[in-house]
Every structure is written in structure tokens, then in C-alpha cells.
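Sample entry as discussed:
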Amino acid sequence: RGGARPGWSQERGSALHQGAAYRAGAAPGGGAAPRHANGGPGGPPATLRSGHRTRRETITGLTDGGRLYRVISTSLVPVPLPRNGLVLSAKLAEIMHVGAGDVLEVELLEGARLVRAVVITGLVDEYLGTSAYMNIDALRRFLREGPTVSGAALLTDKADSDEFYRRIKATPAIAGVSSKRAAIQNFRNTL
């Protein structure tokens, strides 16, 4: 089995009804799994503020119980996302001088440009970069959106991959697919 991520053919900031992601995963060789955020690849861009400190980040909304795209700590333990609030990478919290229980002002940089105070409900040690996560339902409430997704992680079966990709190519709402298997092979080819 391998991984695939379809990319929607809508402009950045748009999202599809989550049913489209389930249909993509229902193609032969695919496993239905809308697994990540609203508002564009990686989630909606936002400015996070704490006092005089600001940081532009994306907020990644994830479903409960995800297996293909989830928050994993440096000790390789899955980190559950609470029903409300933000979970920040420890590095982002350090940069912002905040911790669990503190409040960040979050200004969305797309759409209605909502500004809200959001409680930091947890921190996670990660190996790379800075990240901000929310439970996808909490993110939808924050964005005032219904059941939409801007991306999905799909598990694919190599035996049915031709049919899977044929159906994906025939789906107008999907502009393309990134394949974990192909990415790994391309990486190896460059070595």
C-alpha cells in the first residue's frame, strides 16, 4: 500500500465538501480518508499574535482517529487534538513565548479575515519546523464553514493503482495527485 494526496482544482482558499474526498478514496485501490484542513494546502493561513510577537502560520485541521495524517510527537506517540483550541509545536510556542493555557489572537488571512482569541490547549515536540493544529470540527466552526476539506490523505493499493488514477483523472474537482511512492522514488533517483 502507498499514499496519495489529491489536490483540488479550485483556487487557493477554496474547499470542497468532504464527500468529494470520500468519493476519491472510494475509487478502486483507494481508502476513503479526508484527513486534513480547510482553506488550502496545509490549512488556512493566519497571523498568530501574543503581545508584540506575531507569526504567520497555517492552521492544520485534522480528524479524530486519523491514521494517514496525524500529529506525532518526537517520541512517536500520536497526539490527540482536543475538541477546541490550538495545539502548537513546542518550537512555535517557544518563538511566541506562550504555553498551554495561554491565549493567542488568531487573524485569518483569507475570506472574511476573522479575528478571534483561541486558547492553546497543548504543545507537541516535533522534529521539523513550526506547526499549529486544530480538531477539524473546531477549525470549521472557527472558519464558519460546513463539512468541507481542502485536502485528503488516501491509502492506495498498488494492485488497483491504474484504476484508481484513471478515476482520479476523470474527476474534474481534482487537479492532481501527489504520490508517496513516486516522491520516495524521485528522492532516491536524485541521490
Q: What stands out?
A: The chain is about 25% helix and 30% strand.
